[in-house]
Structure to design on (263 residues):
């Protein structure tokens, strides 16, 4: 049985006031980690540096910077410029899309490790990427999964680590959650957008589901907790990935409270 912790994740596009309030509230609510996505145009590392100055112990993650957005050298320079609490930061990277994705990820991670002393997170989708993540990552961050398929992905990652004689990485997963009915149209739009990308479309096809089936649209905090429990039986960490109607402080704080870890 996996002993799972709970993380909270938001969008890197959140207003700064929402990010700051969410980081503080997540720490106070007992979450182990606070994550931000990396938008194509944005600076989630700078936002996490600001969050780090406002908090004491919660670990901070960016999930994830594709190597097609920034090279390993660019990421390393950005890390050096940001005033990050290094002992608390998880640096998430992904292959990006296009030819040579596996090679790009392998080479990028090796180069990044030579330049920064941070925990490296890999965000894979398909089986080959999960295998590579199992071989290389400190933490693996999965995304858009049903609990049933999650077990398949996690098992593949752990087999890959064992095959190269290294301890298994921490395996975490984003689970998109709503609790406010007014957020559901936005969640549906996000599902449609991701489902339109070929590599994500293949990801959903492997699972035999529509994107919305990998999310939690809850009516109450109790329902969020019950639905998250199915993932916590599989993963080392489950990240409540908030989807709200307007990304306001109050909306995000409501989800932080609804999904907070027990005890």
């Amino acid at each position: 049985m996996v002993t799972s912790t709970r993380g909270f994740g938001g969008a890197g596009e959140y207003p700064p006031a929402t990010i700051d309030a969410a980081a503080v509230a997540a720490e106070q609510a007992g979450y182990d980690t606070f994550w931000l996505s990396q938008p194509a145009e944005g600076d989630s590392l700078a936002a996490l540096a600001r969050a780090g100055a406002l908090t004491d112990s919660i670990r901070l993650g960016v999930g994830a910077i594709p190597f097609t957005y920034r090279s390993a050298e660019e990421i390393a320079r950005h890390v050096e410029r940001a005033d990050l609490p290094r002992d608390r930061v998880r640096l998430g990277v992904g292959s990006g899309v296009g030819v040579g994705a596996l090679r790009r990820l392998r080479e990028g991670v090796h180069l990044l490790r030579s330049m920064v002393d941070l925990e490296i997170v890999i965000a894979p989708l398909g089986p080959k990427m999960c295998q590579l993540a199992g071989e290389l990552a400190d933490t693996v961050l999965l995304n858009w999964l049903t609990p049933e398929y999650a077990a398949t992905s996690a098992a593949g990652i752990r087999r890959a680590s064992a095959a190269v004689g290294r301890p298994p990485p921490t395996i975490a997963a984003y689970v998109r959650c709503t609790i406010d009915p007014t957020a559901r149209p936005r969640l549906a739009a996000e599902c449609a957008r991701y489902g339109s990308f070929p590599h994500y479309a293949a990801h959903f096809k492997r699972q035999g589901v529509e994107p919305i089936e990998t999310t939690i649209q809850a009516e109450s905090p109790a329902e969020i907790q019950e639905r998250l429990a199915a993932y916590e039986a599989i993963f080392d960490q489950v990240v409540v990935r908030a989807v709200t109607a307007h990304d306001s402080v109050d909306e995000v704080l409501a989800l932080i409270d609804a999904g907070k870890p027990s005890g």
About this structure: The beta strands are 5-10, 33-36, 59-66, 89-94, 119-122, 139-142, 170-178, 216-217, 237-242.
